[in-house]
Amino acid sequence: MPDSDSIALIIGLGNPGPRYEGNRHNIGFLVADELADRAGGRFKAHKSGAEVVEGRLAGTRSVLVKPRSFMNLSGSPVAGAAKFFKVAPESVIVIHDELDLPFGTVRLKRGGGENGHNGLRSISKSLGTRDYVRVRFGVDRPPGRMDPADYVLKDFSTVERKELEFFIDRCADAVEALATEGLEAAQNRFH
């Protein structure tokens, strides 16, 4: 179990603005919004270049972060928040979309490559390491020959939206388990 004095620094990735709200690429923001509701807080601008909610999730002191930059430039606000809240890169939790997982699948892991995800690439560069925790939310592969970059910037389909709330809730449960029980225990529960 995590140290009682530790802070869970939870980053939801997405693109700012109403144009991107329902995009697959914004799943990190959608899960962060659910976690903010659970913590009883509202996102507010922070000097790190992100919107932040400080509160408690399942009894654990938590800071939720949504970078105000575009996805590909997420690293600077994430590193700024980690520095401000004195959280080591290894203790940062990043929620992001994952093309290589079926829609709604949640997988948790530490480190690894970025798999072409420019938001993760930016974070790895700014933190100086790839050794942070990732909460991977499956959005599936694009149909046919559609460019993956175009696919993630499209809204969830009508069929996906019918189940999306359930999967967001499940992903938020996994993040809470990560923050309170640690990676291995959370993996055992959600994989």
Helix/strand layout:
Elements: E1 8-12, H1 27-39, E2 44-46, E3 50-57, E4 60-67, H2 75-84, E5 92-98, E6 106-110, H3 118-127, E7 133-138, H4 148-152, H5 158-181, H6 183-190
Parallel strand pairs: 1-4, 1-5, 5-7
Antiparallel strand pairs: 2-3, 3-4, 6-7
Give an overview in words.
By secondary structure, this protein is α/β, with parallel strands linked by helices. The chain has one domain: Rossmann fold. Helices cover 37% and strands 22% of the residues. It is built from six helices and seven strands, in the order E-H-E-E-E-H-E-E-H-E-H-H-H. Strands 2-3-4-1-5-7-6 form a seven-stranded mixed β-sheet. Strand 2 (44-46) and strand 3 (50-57) form a beta hairpin. Helix 1 crosses helix 5 (158-181). It is globular, with a radius of gyration of 15 Å. 41% of the residues are buried. The mean pLDDT is 93.
List keywords for this structure.
7 strands, Rossmann fold, seven-stranded mixed β-sheet, 22% strand, alpha/beta, globular, 191 residues, 6 helices
Low-confidence stretches: none
Rg over CA atoms, rounded to whole Å, is 15 Å
The major β-sheet equals: 7 strands, mixed
Shape: globular
Please write the string of helix (H) and strand (E) elements: EHEEEHEEHEHHH
CATH architecture: 3-Layer(aba) Sandwich
Lateral strand order in the biggest sheet: 2-3-4-1-5-7-6
- Portion in helices: 25-40%
Average pLDDT across residues?
A: 93
